[in-house]
Design brief:
- The N terminus is likely disordered.
- Helix 1 packs antiparallel against helix 2.
- The protein is of the alpha+beta class.
- A 16-stranded antiparallel barrel has the order 1-2-3-4-5-6-7-8-9-12-13-14-15-16-17-18. Strands 10-11 form a two-stranded antiparallel sheet.
- The chain is elongated and about 110 Å long.
- It contains five helices and 18 strands.
């Protein structure tokens, strides 16, 4: 209706402008030498013809709007468009692609060792479509936003058997008050800074650390209250404090059923004590703490993307609850520091498993990772170094250590819409296998490359 009124007003203004033009021409003619009747009629006909052309074009646009089709606007550089299905105030179509090339001791950093128990195709050289996601998101009215995104690349070797296209982020969020948003649906849970606070397109290495993959709660279906309490109270310091508290099924993503009457309860708090400049460079420092508690029924898969269950030869596999229910109590702390071309990130996570596996005593899997990066050519070329340590805590000295050295090249400048190339060398050492040489090698090397882009 607003578009129709706008076009009607435009038609009226165009008609007035044309008539004014005729009157102006006549007035100018009146002050000049008398023109013949033929000249005056010709000018009037030209003005009427121009008005008729404008009217025809506007009528065509009205017809296209009524039919729900976009008006054909002729420009030198036509822009892509998405047509809202109903009354969305904003509708965006987008996604991203990430492809890997992996050579050497593939997946050794995850505890999958060549020749080890449970060895499969993940340990061979390969090209892999890591993620291929597409979705729509936008605003519904003034107080709601939403996101519907799915992934084509599900057969990635460590996603719990997921195959074909499936949902990743599927939610609606009420954002009337910046201090208290309410999100419902399926989305990343607020546990683990590397997973929750760093999007897939902004990680500094192709893959996240094993402690993150093994101990994070992955995407879940549930509801979350979150916000920035200082957004209206101190607008200039709105990012100083943020909180996230959610209740979830605790059964990983794309599973609508709950494994019992219990839920997963999770919370995270972030504080940004500093934002300003250091030596003339923009800088900020952020701290975070998080945790969750969950009770799981028997046969529940609790580690879908990471390996945390230690086998007799020191290799790792995914963990499923067996025979009877168990409980998980997790906690973590993290920090992010950025100053000009420098980035420093670090995180510690731990999860206590009670009666997780039949015959296995309680254990507390834990670990940490530290990463540093420097852009030697601003927003183009970046050097990266990372160290991670993960202890499943099920066998004596079952620590797994990985050191990563890498280089990132950003074709369009560092950002979520970039085209990026990553090259990394990963050196992994397993302490248990080092102390028990009968199981084979304990040092492993992998070369990993990634090409990614967003649209």
């Amino acid at each position: 209706m607003q578009a129709k009124c706008f076009l009607r007003r435009t038609l009226a203004l165009a008609a007035i402008a044309a008539l004014c033009g005729v009157c102006r021409v006549n007035a100018q003619d009146a002050g000049a030498a008398p023109a013949s009747d033929t000249d005056r009629i010709q000018k009037l006909e030209d003005a009427v013809r121009q008005l008729s052309d404008q009217n025809q074009q506007l009528q065509q646009e009205i017809t296209e709007l009524k039919s729900g089709q976009p008006a054909q606007v002729v420009t030198n550089n036509p822009l892509p468009f998405v047509v809202p299905g109903l009354n969305e105030m904003k509708l965006v179509l987008g996604g991203y692609f990430q492809g890997n090339a992996e050579f050497g001791d593939v997946d050794a950093y995850r505890g999958s060792f060549p020749g080890a128990k449970g060895h499969n195709e993940r340990a061979f050289d390969r090209f892999k479509i890591r993620r291929a996601r597409i979705g729509v998101w936008g605003d519904l009215g003034e107080n709601f936003d939403f996101k519907l995104m799915g992934d084509f690349a599900q057969g990635d070797g460590f996603s719990g058997g997921r195959e074909g296209f499936s949902g990743t982020d599927l939610y609606i969020n009420y954002h009337r008050f910046a201090e208290a948003n309410v999100k419902f649906g399926q989305f990343d849970t607020p546990f683990g800074m590397e997973q929750f606070s760093i999007p897939d397109m902004l990680t500094l290495t192709p893959e996240r650390s094993e402690v993150t993959e093994g101990l994070r709660a992955e995407r879940q279906i549930g509801v979350m209250l979150w916000g920035k309490p200082l957004a209206d109270l101190i607008p200039e310091e709105k990012d100083m404090l943020a909180y996230y508290f959610g209740v979830f099924n605790g059964d990983l993503r794309n599973i609508n059923a709950n494994d019992g009457d219990n839920f997963m309860y999770m919370g995270r708090v972030e504080v940004e004590p500093f934002q300003g400049q250091i030596f003339g460079q923009p800088a900020w420092w952020k701290l975070g703490v998080d945790g969750y508690y969950s009770v799981d029924a028997s046969n529940t898969l609790v580690s879908q993307t990471g390996n945390i269950w230690v086998q007799s030869d020191g290799s790792l596999k995914a963990l499923s609850v067996q025979t009877h229910s168990d409980s998980r109590l997790a906690g973590g702390a993290d920090q992010q520091f950025h100053c000009g071309p420098f980035t420093l990130q670090a995180e510690y996570l731990q999860t206590h498993f009670h009666d997780a596996v039949a015959g296995l005593p309680d254990f507390t899997a834990h670990g940490y990772w530290v990463i540093g990066a420097c852009q030697i050519i601003p927003r183009r070329l970046e050097l990266v170094g990372k160290y991670e340590s993960f202890k499943p805590d099920q066998l004596p000295s079952d620590d797994l250590w990985t050191t990563t050295a890498g280089v990132n090249y950003y074709f369009r400048g560092r950002g979520p819409g970039d085209i990026t190339l990553m090259f990394d060398w990963l050196h992994t050492q397993d302490h248990f296998r080092e102390l028990n040489p009968s199981f084979g090698a304990y040092r492993f090397d992998e070369v990993m490359a990634r090409m990614e882009f967003a649209f």
